[in-house]
Amino acid sequence: MSEIRHLKPAGKAIFTDRYTKKAKELLTNWSKDKKATFGMVGLPLSKPSISHSGAALAPGTIRDALQSYSVYSGEQMFDLEEDIIDFGDLEMHPTDIVGSQKRLYEGLWDIYQTEAADNWFLLGGDHSVSYSSIKAFQEHYGSVGIIQFDAHHDLRNTEDGGPTNGTPFRRLLEDKIITGENLVQIGIRDFTNAKAYHEYAKENKVTVYTMADVRKNGMVSILKSEIEKLSKRVDSIYLSVDMDVLDQAFAPGCPAIGPGGMDSTTLVEGITVAAQYDMVKAMDIVEIDPTIDFRNMTSRVAAYVLLEFMKGKRLGY
Predict the structure, then answer these.
(1) What is the CATH number of the domain that holds 190?
(2) How many independent structural domains does the chain possess?
(3) What pTM did the predictor assign?
(4) Smallest Cα–Cα separation from 175: which of 195, 158, 188?
């Protein structure tokens, strides 16, 4: 017998509909001189987490979750056609946390320098990866405004635990990589932070919207107002999406789940609106632990957020 019938490579024997293109098919490997509207990098670091976390596994599950969606927006009646250049994952040291954070900075500095993409997707990892990513980003793109979707301030002191996933924005402020007036926090949840860190945010002129503010004022109104303000002070805007901004019902795969959070529709609406602004150039997604998720629900939300960002860019053209 010269050929085995009906055989495909492992993992490829899935149903194919000739009229349906899956979102995962947008991913294309990076090669020198390749350019695209979107670039993607995995930042698989979660050892700095102050709670147990397998978030280092999330870049892979988010990519896989793209297979759950088509590229067609029925609401807008167009296909997402732009490739996503996938640089793969940056390699982490098995024991050296600070060394791994330095690797993230160095690797992302090199990747941003390629100018291979107009917009960047950074897949964490825990929230500590945002320090390295934003540091490298602002060195290439100039002054940066941050819109942080999060239940937590992530302004913890570094004396008690070092550079953990609770400290990235304090470190960015203390290292003068960003200024407090250019940091906007949306979705801060009740009974989830210490008074000292709320006061630190106010002292450093960080703009804070609690979940009560989001419910009262609306996500779209908040974002439009804050992006307009930032656009007068910075060269570019970076979105940092900590998935625990979502209520535990929508993100069971977050290490720090809790009630009283945002619903997925509100988050998605905000990402779509923010992406329509040309100044919004990058977005990280962090704090998903696939080992505790249920049916990859949280990774599927993350993949959907990526597609809504792409849709927003299309609408903003």
Answers:
(1) 3.40.800.10
(2) 1
(3) 0.96
(4) 158
